[in-house]
Design brief:
By secondary structure, the protein is of the alpha/beta class. Helix content is 29%, strand content 26%. The strands form six sheets. It has a four-stranded mixed beta sheet with strand order 22-23-1-24. The chain has a four-stranded mixed beta sheet with strand order 2-15-17-16. A four-stranded mixed beta sheet has the order 4-5-3-14. A hairpin with a 4-residue loop joins β4 and β5. The structure holds ligand EPZ.
Length: 421
Amino acid sequence: MDSIIVRGNGPLKGQIPIAGAKNACLTLMPATLLSEEPLTLTNAPRLSDIKTMTELLSSLGAEVSSLQDGKVQAMSSHNIDNHIADYDIVRKMRASNLVLGPMLARLGHAVVSLPGGCAIGARPMDLHIHGLEALGAEIELKDGYLHAKAVKGLKGATIDLAFASVGATENIMMAATLAKGTTVINNAAREPEIVDLATCLRAMGAQIEGDGSSSIEIQGVDRLHGATHPVVTDRIELGTYMLAPAICGGEVECLGGKISLLGAFCEKLDAAGIHVEETEKGLKVARRNGRIQAVDVTTEPFPGFPTDLQAQMMALLCTAEGTSVLEEKIFENRFMHAPELTRMGADIEVHGGTATVHGVKRLKGAPVMATDLRASVSLILAAMAAEGETIVNRVYHLDRGYERVEEKLGNIGAHIERVKS
Ligand code: EPZ
């Protein structure tokens, strides 16, 4: 398992290109199952999760070719000869459950393994099931697999989501594109990845309105055609790299970044003392003079503060002036980075879904362990301003969501190297 060695250093300078969004690509790729015609995604990120989704779609009979060094995913689902999404692939990546809605809509049946829990939580699928059953699907859990069928096809319905679930909104929206009649999803997720999926589905001939708001209306159509769609910029990679100059000082321009992708994250950066400026190429980020100020953070569905940036924000607040309180409201176990940051000298108390961070002057390098995707990058950010050397182990977590992280951070002056083992 590779490790990454980071040595604390001074201010950063330069530009970081922000890739296409992992969490958009992982829902756009299953959309190929909705049409017999080819779907091509450009600006795709080069990540292990994309490889896993490629493996899953290929196991169903789709043809997926990664072109131009992986930045283009050319897909054709003309021949889908398997309707079973196997546990061995699904357990590696929860987003595999996003083939359920498209397969039901296209084939009328699907067998998809439940993903099982992951490090940050149980990750149930009750909202996906409730929504698809409202469209007329019959879904039964047997031997850890969801057996879903819609022999008479899917029918439009009004669905009230108990929670603005991103995945459930995506599965229901994709299924509804080929259902007979009108579907309305209330309390729908509003993330930019939902808007990106709706944009791609409209390019394929779907009739969707209201994406980005909490009520989405879909008029079912008989079939969808092929399309070419650019994957939206990754707002979580963007927010992650904006925190690099915030933590280390200096000034960095995040190419392709837009404030509209970030919701409450930018307000919190401003309150902490970080200056963010939109340029022609992206977002320029610099620490205003003086120490970072403590801020309180509560994670919420978009446009609230993103849960996927909570760990990275905690890395910033470890050396802020004052005490910050972070509330994790989306997942039940998403503070695993806290004990690792404590090994570096951070002063953090975790009680259930609340972490209280008492700012210290500076962290000290130490051997630490990555536990999940976002926790791993939070440790790297903290290490970049710590005294001495930090070794981050189990960085396979990192490669799921960040392409070439040591190259991108190295190019702006970080002392970071990957050690193959
Ligand atoms: C998506 O996961 C993202 N993953 C997650 O990013 C992100 O953290 C999450 O949305 C919230 O923004 C992808 O897009 C591939 P949810 P998803 O359904 O769809 C509960 C990362 O680091 N829930 O909005 O699984 C669930 O347990 C990953 O890139 C139910 O109770 O998130 C959780 O507590 C991590 N029943 C909350 O809702 C359901 O049927 C949010 O889940 C579905 C979800």
